[in-house]
Amino acid sequence: MTQRLAPGDRAPEFTLPDVDGNQVSLADLRGGRVIVYCYPAASTPGCTKQACDFRDNLASFADEGFTVLGISPDHPAKLATFRQNEGLTFPLLSDPDKGVLTAYGAYGDKKLYGKVVVGVIRSTFVIDADGVIELAQYGVKATGHVAKLRRDLGLVEVPVR
What residues act catalytically? Predict the structure, then answer.
């Protein structure tokens, strides 16, 4: 059974490469709130929908003081193509050994079409300015998740453009 994080837990520290090879560390984002979302694979239909929802809400999240980070096991080159194809403007981080995904409880047994498989569990974490988990959501749906997250955080709805 995968260990899951809960509100009040210290967020596991990480440093991962982004699509350009720059190292992004959670510690460098202290003092602001961070949304970390974990997704199975770049350029797949559900992950594309979710990433585009974050992209479309990025300005309003930034206005509320949030930094958004996406983490998947994809290598930076695949993430660069995903960023380019979808016009993504927030950091996509590469975790091919799944160490960070595992530390966050976002890698392990999950149900897929009624069968138990091992893989990335679509999850979202809100981390406060001190590095503590505010919100941990596991097994989230790709479609509609960002709107639900906004409601859960008490943020106003963003009009669809």
Answer: 47
Per-residue pLDDT tens for 132-149? 999 999 999 999 999 999
Indicate whether this model's pTM tops 0.90.
Answer: yes
Looking at residue 92, what is its pLDDT? 98
Q: What is the SS3 assignment for 11?
A: coil
Residue 22 lies in a domain: yes
* C-beta atoms surrounding 107 within 10 Å: 22
* Cβ(33)–Cβ(134) below 8 Å: yes
Tokens of 127: 């981390």
Q: Kindly report the CATH number assigned to the domain that includes residue 24.
A: 3.40.30.10
Chain segment 100-115, per-residue pLDDT in tens: 999 999 999 888 788 8
Q: Is residue 161 part of a domain?
A: no
CB 76 within 8 A of CB 19: yes
> Domain total for the chain?
1
The range of the structural domain enclosing residue 48 comes to 15-152
CA distance 129 to 159: 27
